[in-house]
Amino acid sequence: MTMGTTNKPVALVTGGSKGIGRAICVEMAKSGYQVVINYLSDTDGARETLAQVSQVGGNGICAQFDVSDYAASQTALQTIFSTFPSMDVLVNNAGRIADELFIMMTQDKWRSVIDLTLQGFYNVTRPVLEKMVVQKRGAVVSIASVAGIMGNRGQANYAAAKAGLIGASRSVASEVARLGIRVNVVAPGLIQTDMIHDAPVQKIKGLIPMARLGTAEEVARVVRFLCSEDAAYVTGQVISVNGGMF
Ligand code: NAP
């Protein structure tokens, strides 16, 4: 573990142990950020992300906590805030699917996806924003999904959660815009990660104008742009990264 230093900005990325979150951690490290790599259960994956962050000349720490657990999140964030002097970027990336046709969907499947996405947004974003408000700067990017815009068969829970993330982000963006803080959303289409392991990829490719899946790095580069000064006048927006799907 490399501890925080005073001279580099800090990015907290939830769900950084693999997939899109890992690519975001590496991309932010390349841009000069210290990275706090949150994860739930995959310690080896988080350590691998930290190794990749180091390989590109960055530093950071791994921070295990369940973003859907209010008490655990507050405790972990206090430790992170005492380790790092500033909090410049938050990427709400942690996510999961629990697909089922709505009529068959158990309360547990409904609740687990909503809780992770929306309680997770509240549990982490609110305290981070408190810090950003004092700093009078910061950028928050949340990872939604094409499903949150278009809906998707078998994903009523996921689509509802991601649509909620968009509504919450747009609302918060308007509340903090005058305080130097920008809040945006990236809505990926189908991205090659563990999450879509069981998806009917060949069938879905037919629905994508570019006729291919996206990569985690292609999402990460858009996140990095939204966190940068190049996006200084961009807030409250939803940027789709989906190969041309409508
Ligand atoms: P992934 O490979 O399954 O990774 C999910 C990450 O979220 C892991 O790091 C996991 O940690 C973490 N996580 C899960 N529950 C958590 C919790 N309660 N607290 C903290 N961390 C938690 O997924 P991905 O494909 O990279 O997806 C990343 C984001 O992009 C998600 O929000 C997803 O909904 C969104 N997205 C993905 C796609 C796609 O096609 N892949 C498309 C649209 C949107 P552990 O590994 O430690 O459990």
Please tell me about this protein's structure.
The chain has 246 residues and is of the alpha/beta class. The protein has a single domain, classed as NAD(P)-binding Rossmann-like Domain (Rossmann fold, 3-Layer(aba) Sandwich). Helices cover 45% and strands 15% of the residues. It has eight helices and seven strands, in the order βαβαβαβαβααβααβ. It has helices spanning 19-30, 43-55, 70-83, 107-135, 146-150, 156-176, 201-205, 216-227, and strands spanning 10-13, 34-39, 60-64, 89-92, 138-143, 181-188, 238-241. The chain has a seven-stranded parallel beta sheet, with helices on both faces. Helix 4 links the parallel strand 4 and strand 5 (138-143). The longest helix has 29 residues, at 107-135. It starts with 9 loop residues before the first strand and ends in a 5-residue tail after the last strand. The model has no long low-confidence stretch (mean pLDDT 96). NADP nicotinamide-adenine-dinucleotide phosphate binds next to helix 1 and strand 2.
Q: Could you provide a short overview of the structure?
A:
This protein has 246 residues and is an alpha/beta fold.
Count helical runs: 8
Structural class: alpha/beta
> What is the terminal separation in angstroms?
42 Å
CATH class: Alpha Beta
| Shape summary | globular
